[in-house]
Each structure stands twice: as C-alpha cells, then as structure tokens.
Amino acid sequence: RSECLIQGVPEVPGQFRYAVTNFPSQVSQKGVLVGDTLVDLEMEAIPVRVLNLNNKPKILDKEDVIATCDPVVDIVARPQEFSTAQHLQSTLENLQILNEEQRTAVKKLLNEFQDLFSTCDADVGRCNMTQHRINTGDHPPIKQYPRHLPLARKEEAEHLVQEMVDNGIIEESSGPWASPIVLVKKKDGSTRFCVDYRKLNEITKKDSYPLPRIGDTLDALNGSQWFTTLDLKSGYWQVEVRPEDREKTAFTTGQGLWQFKRLQNANLKLSPKKCRFFQKEVTYLGHVISAEGVKTDPGKIKAVVDWPRPETIHDLRSFLGLCTYYRRFVKNFSTIARPLHKLTETKSNFNWTEECEKSFNSLKQALTSSPILTYPRTNKDFILDTDASNEGIGAVLSQNIGNEERVIAYFSKSLGKPERNYCVTRKELLAIVKSIEHFHHYLYGQKFLLRTDHASLRWLLNFKEPEGQIARWIQRLQEYDFEIQHRKGTSHGNADALSGRPCGESCKHCSNAEKKFGIEIDTSVKVLTTTSVDPWSSCEIQKAQLEDPAIKTILEKKLMSADRPSWQEIAPESPATKRYWALWDSLHLKDGVLYRRWESDDGRCCQWQLILPKSRIPEVLRETHDSTSGGHFGVMKTLSKTRERFYWDRLRADVENWCRECHACGARKGPKTRTKGHLQRYNVGAPFERMALDILGPFPVTTKGN
Which stretches make up the Peptidase A9 domain (predicted)? Predict the structure, then answer.
C-alpha cells in the first residue's frame, strides 16, 4: 500500500493544451489506481500519481498505457471555496467561538496543511530527525512469558497485531527478548494496545535530556488570549527504532513474537480528534488554562471526588499521588493531608481513624473548591505571605493585578519531629526560609514583599551575632532582595489558616526572642508571677481604662477612630491626660484595649505596654516587687520588670514610692551608711606584739631637695 509518481510520455504532444487523465480498465485490474490530474501536454514528461492498493509489489511494463487524456473545453475561474477534508470535520466543530471571517481563515489554514493530519488509525507518521536507541549495555536479554488474556479479548488482540503488521509497524521477531502485552480501554471505548516494558526499562540506561517542568510551561502562558493544543497520532509509533535495537522491543501475545521496526516514510502526523485550535479555554496536562489563569481539570477532580475510602496502603498512596499533583492549588495541603501521610510511613499500622476520614473528605472538598491561579507577571512585584503552626508551615505567593491581589501558588510543608519542638519564632523563621527556597525561581533577582504576622521577624536581618542554625538561615536569606512587613493576624488570613499555636511558656527560644525583640502580648494579660493570678480579660481592662479619668478621653477618641485632638480640646484636661495626649502616635488599640508601642532608638527592640488604669497599679506592683518572682528587688530592677508589660503616667515615681514604703524591704534591709564603732581601751603588750603600717605620700620636695 504505497503511492508514487511516475513519468508518463504523451503519444501526440501539443494537440491540445490541457487534459484530464483517466485510467483504463486493464491498469485497475492489476490493483493499481491512477489519479485524475489536470496536465499540460506541452511538457515532455507528465507526472502521474499511481497507488498500489494492497501490500504485494506491482510491476507496470514500460510500454503500458496507464491513462488517457481528454481535452478541456474551458477553464472557468470560480470564487475561492474551501472544502474541508472529511478527517478534519471534528476539528472544525470546535471553532464555534470564532466569527465567520475567522473560521474561514482557519479552514484555509487547515486545508493547506491537511496532509499533517492522520486520516485513519493506520495513517501514522515517521520522525526522520532521530532514531530511538535502547541502551541496555551488556545486560543479558529479558524474556517474559505472555499473560493470560480473557477469551473475549484474544481475538481483539490478534486483530490489533495483524493491523500493525499490515501497516508496516511491526514485524516477526526471532530474538531472545520478549515482553507481555496489556490491553487498556480508552475513554471512547476503543482499545489501546500497550506493551509492559517495565523490566526492560529497569536495565535501560536513562537519557538525561531534561523534560520541561509543567509549572514552567504554565507560567509561560502569561498574556495569552487564544490557545491551541496539538496531539500526535500514536506518537510512540512515529519514531524509528535503530535496527540493532528492534529485537529489544519484541513482545508476545502467546501466538507469536513481534518487534517494532521502521515506520512509514512520512513526517509526524497529528490526531485531528484531539487537536484544538483557537480556543479561549483548553485542557493541558491535567489543567484547564485560559486567559484568566490556571485551574484544575474537572475530569481529574471527579476521579478524586468519586474515590472510595482506601482500604490498603497502595490505594491510599494512589489517592495521595493524584491529590499531590494539584497541591499548588490547595492552601495548607500538607497540614490537611498529614493524617493520611502518617498511615503511609514504614512503621505505621494501617488504622483508619476518624481523623483520617476527616482529612480524606477535607482533601476532596479543597480540590473541588480550588481557586483559579493567575500567571506570574515579571513586571509586577511578588508578595509572599508566610505562617507556621505546631504541625506545619505554609505560604501564599501573589501579585497585585489591577485592584486585586491574585494568588499565583500555595506552598505547605509538614514539620518533622525535631522541627515541631522549635519555638514560635524559629518556626516562623523556618517558614520564611522554606517558602523562599520553594519559590526561588520566582523571587531570586527580584525585589519582593515578605509579610508575616510575627512582629519580632521585622528585624530579621539585624540580629546581633547570630549563631548556629539561625546564622545559616540568615546567610541564606541575604541572597534575596526583600522588604519585611508585619501584618496583624486578623489581616493575615490568607497564610494564617495553619492556626498557629504558641509553644510552652518555658521555651527558652521564645524567652530570648521576647527579651531581644518584644513579642506582642495577648490582650488577656497575665502578670508574670509564680503565684496563681487570674488573667484580666480585654473587657475588664477596657472598663477599668474608661473609669480612669486620665485615660478615658484618649481611649474614647481612639475607639471612635478619630484623629489626634487639638490642643484646644485637650487643654481643659488633667496633666496626666495631656501627657497621654503627647504619646498619641505611639498609642494603639488591640481588641478595644489601649496599648503603648515602645521602640528602642536603634529600632531593634519593640515592646507593647498596656496602659494601666490607676486602680490596677497596686496589683501590678505587688506582683512585680512583692511576689516570689518579684524578689523585693530595688527600684531599677522593679522598674525594668514593670516596663516590660505596663505603662502609666508617673510610672517611675510610683515604683520608687512603692519600694521605699515596702515594710518587708524596710525590715530586712539596713541603711546604706554604716555606723562607726565606739572607741575602747586595750592592753599594751610586749614590743612588736602589734604593728601598724600606713602608706603616705607623695610629699612635696623641700628646697634642699628632700
């Protein structure tokens, strides 16, 4: 079954200019078909298309008449019309989104290149740019026995093999290699003929030529409005196998041994049923892409939703593998999937708990409601939000596009056992390091904004003499150009869904961080003491502040979100209120409670001090001075400890008076000046029994030099 051009010679050249060839019956009886062609008889040799209708060689004698010529009466120019080939009809059905002019242009293009499309299952191409090599080194041949096929499918397998033989795709083999076949049902109900080459792949030396990353190909679609996808027809069959490696491709069906060989002499062929041209939205590698962004393929997600509860580790790993492919679409993926991942660990027993069931359903829900991720813009600054919890870390990469902050990708990671023992500050820093490393290909070489809800990390790169792991992390981060911005937890919802929880009160790392940088305190204030003291709720504190005349005016203005009152408004108030008014810019509300935000001169230390009502001052001073943890220290130490959490007008004077009037301190601590002892007589003993020595000088020099 081949086609070729032969040179025909007209018997009476030049009698008429144009003619249409017509094949005589004796040629068709030989199984040869001659195509009708418009020719010019003034040519010495006329090209004639001849087609062999079967797989046996045909011979035409030199003097055979292969065609006759009929004169053309007239040639009439007709308006240009494009009759679409039958095998392209399915492709053109997907062009309804185009207008008439655009559809006409696409039809013209497809008709011009219609030979690139496969017309039937047997019409596959051949890539003449390379040959497929199977490098197994000196490994002995692998021979596998054929698998049992159901009786209902044996005939189908034999039919597919015979079809490939007729199409010149395979040939009989007599080599020592053999692999079994697998028949797989396609979506349209037809059968895909596959060979199980896993054993062959294990001994084949892999080609290191890199395949493009799926994420990189999706990122490259920024700015695209129209999309086209091309699919090769039986792409595996379109690459020629080296003659010396063909025996390695041998497969057996139980009825014979076959191997792949050189394919038809043609270029690559496309499958018209699977090609999509000029679409606003197409499915690509399990993703649906459009000008708006990337989203998950509903067909793949339906498989996740319909997935039954896994009964074995193998089933669970298959489910997690499909879900992991779309993890960039799911916020906090690792945290949600952690109970399921625990079941796949080596030393874990497969015990499906209520927590696993919740995780299983949460993953399904997260994938069905996943957002549309936007394409990254190189002309826009990136925004990275990070957060950490006791179980994992997470991040959101986004950009401001128009008036909206659009998500590009999510990142999450479960914490290992040592990492779960980190303090809050180290976990938050770990989240920053891992997130930046994950999005390295986006962030490196570009300035970006890093947002965190952990206040102490604003001075991340200004640590004095960092050591060990912290030093290595900071050194790694210095490769990037970013600005750190603190954001309240209520505003940090896009990354804060990890539900960060504080670590134990005895954590040494948090204690050090608090002393160095001042971590935000909870509005449910606890006085630091070893005694049992009930915390103050925000409602109690706010009520006490409103009852304090010195604080009331300032707090009411802050609650109304008013601007700083003028001096004329504040002039009638008390001196204490005026001093609070002078601190207006450093006073802030947290859950309706007034705090003072204090920063050191170098900006490296920050503390949030509760504005303490006068009615609460004695209770605080009893805890910071009189209690066991207070230790009845002096004025400076008590003042320093009190300032760590609280502030009020005349704080220093109140601390001095409290320490001076403390009865315990007065009873146990003597006066600073020691009394001199009384003069007494003593008995004079023997010579040199007692000696006294003193050092005097230097003395002035006399006139004689002494």
Answer: 87-146
